Amino acid sequence: MPATASRPLRRDAQRNRERIVAAAREVFATRGFAATLDDVAHHAGVGVGTVYRRFPTKEALVEAIFADRIEGVVAVAEQCLAEPSAWDGLTRFMVYACHTHAEDRGLRDVMLSLGMKKRFPDSGDRLETVITELVARAKDEGTLRTDFEATDVPIIFTMVSDLAGAPAGAYDRYLRLVIDGLRACPRNADLGPALTRDQVIGVLSGCVPPVRPRSSAAQ
């Protein structure tokens, strides 16, 4: 009999995997990349060895629990690109993404991390393309200020999502304030040059923790 590439998991192993994934979604949503596999094991009610048998690294677990979530964000972005109003499409996506990041710290960290496109190359490329098109389309429509660039989008996401723990109402207040500041207006002050891609990467690296802390090879 030819050897198969992989065997189906036993029922108990499959149940453990599902418990681990469900627990990881909850732990990462609250703690983001600061969460450890020990945290996940404790929340799932299993030994950490069980977690490591299913997911040998935290990177593997991150990829397993966020692939579908990121694909969902990309799908919404593509829907927004089809909006008749370019301004409505851009701002709808920005509001959706900011709220999603605020509700799930792990999703926020993975989407704004340096490894986003390495872990999810197809979704990352599609999202970058759609955001660029959303910005260009709104500029062509004349509703978006001309000095705003697609590279400004992840910086805004980072800034606003950090307000998720602020007093009630503050989050939406400042998100709307930022969006209103993007409107094209004859009295718009000059923003100066936009950050380069490398500069944006540098800023995000200081705001989003790495999946694996440099001090711990185990996580």
UniProtKB/TrEMBL annotation:
Keywords: DNA-binding, Transcription, Transcription regulation. Residues 14-73 form the HTH tetR-type domain. It holds the Pfam family TetR_C_43. Signal peptide: none annotated. Residues 36-55 bind DNA. It comes from the Bacteria. This is TetR family transcriptional regulator.
